[in-house]
Design goal:
Layout (H helix, E strand, L loop, with lengths): L1 H4 L3 H12 L5 H7 L5 H5 L2 E2 L7 E2 L16 H34 L11 H10 L9 H17 L13 H10 L6 H11 L8 H31 L5 E5 L9 E6 L3 H10 L3 H9 L5 E6 H11 L3 E3 L4 H6 L5 E4 L8 H4 L6 E4 L10 E2 L7 H15 L14 E5 L3 H9 L7 H8 L5 E5 L11 H12 L2 E5 L1 H9 L7 H5 L2 H10 L4 E3 L6 H14 L11 E5 L5 H12 L4 E3 L9 H15 L3 E3 L3 H18 L9
Parallel strand pairs: 4-5, 4-7, 5-6, 7-8, 8-9, 11-12, 11-14, 12-13, 14-15, 15-16
Antiparallel strand pairs: 1-2, 3-10
Helix pairs in contact: 5-7, 5-9, 5-10, 5-24, 6-7, 6-10, 7-10, 9-10, 10-23, 10-24, 11-13, 11-16, 19-20, 19-26
The protein binds FE(4)-NI(1)-S(5) CLUSTER with Oxygen and iron/sulfur cluster.
Length: 631
């Protein structure tokens, strides 16, 4: 049973214990939901207004329209567009908080400081902010204000979207999908999809593309860039992953959620001498910080803080009985945690005014008092150490990994010189040593064996000389299975990719960060186009994307901004749209003629990998590149 649920040994072990203890996890709750609602799966139920809820009969025998007359195409498109809006809102609200922290960093008293002045200047330049004679603090202030203004901008074009290749920007302009302001595009989806507004599924999806671009080239990019400025641009580093990073004899504090504005401070607080002394007094050998989900990726990338697990392991971490405190902020936090912790000594603490759980202790975070609050949370964890009952059950599994790649460092490394260049990467693709590159991103989902699709797909691609970049829970899955070790190239990669990995000293699968850091992939693709020899647009590049285990609305927004940026993207599960043949055709065929990218839905990760390879070959042929060297 446990084996079918996950390919990860640590997960299997804890699941076995959960079963013995009659503790439910997402997997049991998923089974209890069977059969899941067919109307929901097909995207043809609507409860947008109070004449409904309405549903369309997919077999053509019952109603073909809601009370208002909306048909399957309208209903499915509206539902999907709302998913994009929610996903874009989540990423972008995260970006907004980071911009706020940067504004604070402009004052001397703040706990936040500019850690990467070079990146500060680079991003300020992208905004056209004058730098002459300005201090870091002055630039930080100007940049934070510009970034904050992007959210509420009413007209014009989002500045960061203009970083995309010229041809791409022109295409967006022609299609009328170049975002005006971040919040505006989210709001417009909500408006258009409310009762009695936009009925044309094409027009709805067009706004979906625009809103998704406002996420990728707006909110998410602001989050990534400003986080780099505040917390440092990651550089390759070694670390460890999986539940085995929890330590029996130390205070274990797990940070879970998404925003490094808080987790960065917790990392700092855990080094506080006074708190370390307190831990010692309580009989602990130290304070061990580890992470779950994307906030884990953030502090892994910048500090090498170990990762305890990905999305489906959040409950399992608690079930080890070794977690003294789990601190959560926003996004991907299972409501189930609040009941689960009642069975253990683990203290769950919510921190965001946007995400409270009934009955759970809330210590509100504010950027103004960041370090102080982080210390209070760590202290609570330390004090809870003595409440550990019985022996903890920590699976032994850990894995070594190298993470910390970025749009900047990938190419510094591939260039092998201080002056960064994408030339070696482009040349490797042009001369056929590399077939191309692929991004594998996104979540876990109990509908598919945990981690399995991520790992199978990544292995199949590297075997065929496709360099893989990865983020989010996909990166954590690959990490646990050893794919982020440079050595793995010699075990699993094709010969061409092996040669590249050996020459540069990188793993064949590159961890580029959290889900907002998918914006790093957009910039990497932009740099590849700018370097020359691979066409004039992202859509010309021999690259593809995938989210084989996706579950979140954020994944929908991400998938849409990649497709809108010209990238062929394969999803492990279809969007809930199969109730509309026309919408399915638009997304899987017709979009390519508009934006250069399109979707495919394929749950078999090997077949999905080959769809990506086929696409990469199609692009190689269009560019008239040589055959790959080691086919
Ligand atoms: O933002 S990959 S399960 S943790 S949504 Fe969530 Fe999905 Fe993980 Fe990060 Ni991204
Ligand atoms: Fe039904 Fe139309 Fe109202 Fe949706 S908007 S619930 S289809 S009446």
């Amino acid at each position: 049973m446990a084996k079918e649920r996950s390919i990860d040994r640590a997960t299997q072990e804890v699941l076995k214990r959960a079963e013995e203890a009659h503790l439910r996890t997402a997997w049991e709750r998923y089974e209890l939901q069977q059969p899941q609602c067919g109307f929901g799966q097909l995207g043809i139920c609507c409860r947008i207004c109070n004449m409904g809820p309405c549903r369309i009969d997919p077999f053509g025998k019952g109603p073909s329209e809601g009370v208002c007359g909306a048909d399957a195409d309208t209903i499915a498109a509206r539902n999907l567009a709302r998913m994009i809006a929610a996903g874009a809102a989540a990423h972008s609200d995260h970006g907004r908080d980071v911009a706020h922290a940067l504004l604070l960093a402009a004052s001397a008293e703040s706990d936040y400081q500019v850690k990467d002045p070079a990146k500060l200047r680079e991003v300020a330049r992208a905004y056209g902010i004058g730098l002459d004679g300005a201090s870091d603090r002055e630039i930080a202030k100007a940049l934070a204000e510009r970034a904050l203004a992007d959210f509420g901008q009413q007209e014009g074009e989002l500045e960061l979207a203009l970083r995309a290749p010229k041809k791409r920007v022109e295409r967006w302009r022609e299609l009328g999908i170049l975002p005006r302001g971040i919040d505006r595009e989210v709001v417009e989806i909500m408006h258009r999809t409310t009762m009695g507004v936009d009925t044309d599924y094409r027009n709805i999806i067009q706004q979906g593309l625009c809103c998704a671009l406002a996420d990728g080239w707006g909110g998410s990019m602001i989050a990534t860039e400003l986080q780099d400025i505040l917390f440092g641009t990651p550089e390759p580093l070694r670390a460890k992953v999986n539940l085995g990073v929890l330590e029996e004899d130390k205070v274990n504090i797990v940070v879970h959620g998404h925003e490094p504005t808080l987790s960065e401070m917790v990392v700092a607080a855990a080094r506080d001498p006074e708190l370390l002394r307190l831990a010692e007094q309580k009989g602990a050998k130290g304070i061990n910080i580890s992470g779950i989900c994307c906030t884990a990726n953030e502090i892994l990338m910048r500090h090498g803080v170990p990762i305890a697990g990905n999305f489906l392991q959040q409950e399992l971490a608690v079930m080890t009985g070794a977690v003294d405190l789990m601190m959560v902020d926003v996004q991907c936090i299972m409501p189930a945690l609040s009941d689960l912790v009642k069975h253990f000594h683990t203290k769950l603490v919510t921190t965001s005014p946007k995400a409270k759980f009934p009955g759970v202790e809330h210590i509100e975070f504010s950027e103004e008092h960041a370090l102080e609050i982080a210390k209070e949370i760590v202290r609570l964890g330390v004090e809870n150490f003595t409440r550990r009952s019985g022996k903890a059950f920590i699976p032994k599994e850990t894995m070594d990994l190298v993470a910390g790649f970025t749009a900047e460092s990938v190419f510094t490394f591939l260039g092998g010189t201080y002056r960064a260049t994408y030339r070696p990467l482009n040349d490797a693709i042009i001369d056929g040593r590399l077939r191309g590159a692929a991004g594998i991103v996104g979540c876990n989902n109990p509908k598919i064996t945990h981690d399995w699709a991520h790992v199978e797909m990544a292995e199949e691609l590297i075997k065929h000389d496709v360099l893989v970049v990865t983020t989010g829970c996909s990166a954590i899955a690959d990490a646990k299975h050893g794919l982020l070790r440079p050595e793995v190239a010699f075990e699993l990669a094709g010969r061409g990719l092996q040669e590249i990995c050996e020459a540069v000293g990188i793993p064949p699968v590159l961890h580029v960060g959290s889900c907002v850091d998918n914006s790093r992939i957009l910039m990497t693709l932009t740099h590849m186009v700018a370097e020359g020899g691979l066409g004039e647009d992202i859509a010309d590049l021999p690259v593809a994307g995938a989210a084989p285990e996706w579950m979140s609305e954020k994944a929908v927004a991400i998938a849409f901004y990649f497709v809108a940026s010209g990238v062929f993207t394969v999803l492990g599960f279809p969007f809930p749209i199969y109730g509309s043949k026309k919408l399915n055709k638009l997304l899987t065929e017709e979009l390519e003629g508009m934006v250069g990218g399109k979707f495919a839905f394929e749950s078999d990760p090997i077949k999905a990998a080959h769809l990506m390879i086929e696409h990469i070959e199609k692009k190689r042929a269009a560019l008239k590149l040589k055959e790959v060297m080691y086919a």
